[in-house]
Design brief:
427 residues; alpha/beta; Aspartate Aminotransferase, domain 2; eight-stranded mixed beta sheet; 13 helices; binds pyridoxal-5'-phosphate
């Protein structure tokens, strides 16, 4: 098969007829396939059944704290140590809170806006409006936090080594209303890239280059240990680079066990310089008299000394699904030269770029045949992919046989939409 751009009109029409027929057959199968959900599948959740036994009537932490009671706002020492292992920082830098790192991100943004992260009068709400840099394609829930807080988003291009740091630095240096940047530094959502050491060093120094004196790097390391192969690929430690650059109170790291143990019953972590850790801890103390330390204790016991082994077991379950995605994309779209996609070495997503103007059409075609894909546009702020070309594939939750069927159907839709567009252009 040759590149689709070289096909004649009659060849394209024959292919369109064949693809339309295939899609009609698929519709008849009344499928209910779903590639939208970046969730662990049930067999992954089963890997953490041992959490149930980790307490076994012993509620006392290593330092003697009774985990059942109020207090210990920054978290139990052994849970902070687990966060330190995930984020490559020291336990003193860490707050371990309840389920969901997103809550901690929201709290941090809210503090930066209103109370001030440094308690010295600086607060983002003084900007009109405050803005954040959003590397794209990116994670829709970061965009939601900004939208909910009336923070304007300014797109920065992603490269395979992280955000385009020349662009990010220029934008931040020019506009004092730009107050921060969102980052998913390892197995980025959705492109799967790992930020290079150069990118991490530049990011740690970005608060020094920014025109705003209250610029913050939001470092959401949600996939810190979610490699497919071990020993894991390292990520340069940003907090130590930030300490060298004097920016440690302008870099906030996040992680969680949502995709290590239970997505609904895990631990969220935050790390930063001492001032920000103290400030956020005080704010959390206004929200609650203390986190769920029983959950912290059972997580620390369950994962202590065996995090890598546990993540390797996850990898064995999800690797075949990512392989199925890669194989179908390569076999169905490769030679036609109508798409490019990421081949991540970990994380939860594959990013698929098709020809401009086609993502929404593919979404429609797929839905018509019973396949749900992440809403086209969702990987961009305001749901607006300016080129309407990026699709996010999330293969972990579906059964392997469903992933295979879904990818056949998705690639069929991509081919059909592309042929339609090419024929339209030739008319
Ligand atoms: C980049 C990123 N950050 C955060 C989250 C959610 O984290 P949590 O469950 O800790 O709130 C996700 C979930 O998909 C994610 O992809």
């Amino acid at each position: 098969m040759s590149a689709l751009s070289t096909w004649t009109k009659s060849e394209l029409e024959a292919l369109q007829a064949q693809l339309t027929k295939e899609l009609g057959l698929q519709k008849g199968n009344r499928l209910a396939l779903d590639l939208t959900r970046g969730k662990p599948a049930a067999d992954q959740l089963d890997l953490s059944a041992g959490l149930d036994d980790a307490i076994a009537g012993d509620y006392f932490a290593a330092d003697g704290t009774d985990a059942r009671n109020y207090g210990t706002l920054a978290g139990l020492p052994e849970a902070r140590a687990l966060g330190a292992e995930l984020m490559d920082v020291s336990a003193d830098d860490v707050i371990c809170w309840g389920n969901s790192s997103l809550t901690l991100m929201h709290t941090s943004v809210d503090l930066a806006l209103h109370g001030g992260l440094w308690e010295d009068g600086r607060r983002w709400s003084r900007a009109h409006p405050p803005k954040m840099l959003t590397p794209v394609p990116g994670y829709d829930r970061h965009f939601t936090i900004c939208e909910a807080a009336d923070i304007e988003m300014v797109n920065v291009a992603m490269t395979e080594h992280g955000p385009d740091m020349q662009q990010a630095t220029r934008l931040a240096a020019e506009d004092p209303d730009i107050k921060g940047i969102w980052c998913v530094p390892k197995f980025s959502n959705p492109t799967g890239c790992i930020y290079s050491p150069e990118c991490v060093a530049l990011m740690a120094d970005l608060p020094n280059k920014a025109a705003a004196d209250d610029f913050v790097v939001m470092w959401d390391n949600a996939y810190a240990v979610h490699d497919f192969q071990f020993p894991k690929t390292p990520l340069s430690p940003i907090l130590s680079a930030a300490r060298e650059a004097g920016t440690e109170n302008h870099v906030i790291l996040f992680a969680s066990t949502s995709k290590i143990t239970y997505a609904s019953g895990g631990l969220g972590f935050l790390a930063s310089g001492a001032n920000v850790v103290a400030r956020v801890t005080r704010r959390l103390g206004q929200l609650s008299i203390g986190p769920d330390k029983v959950n912290q204790l059972r997580h620390a016991r369950f994962l202590s000394g065996r995090l890598e082994e546990h993540m390797a077991a996850h990898a064995e379950l999800i690797k075949p699904k990512f392989q199925a995605v890669e194989e179908t994309l390569a076999s169905q779209l490769g030679e036609l030269d109508i798409a490019s996609w990421s081949t991540p070495k970990g994380g939860y997503f594959v990013s698929l770029d098709i020809r401009p103007g086609l993502a929404s059409r593919v979404g429609e075609l797929a839905a018509s045949a019973g396949l749900n894909i992440t809403r086209p546009g969702a990987t961009f702020p305001y749901g607006n992919d300016p080129e309407d070309r990026n699709l996010r594939i999330a293969p972990t939750f579906a059964a392997l046989s469903d992933v295979k069927a879904a990818m056949q159907l998705l690639t069929l839709c991509v081919k059909l939409a592309t042929v339609e567009q090419q024929l339209g252009g030739q008319a």
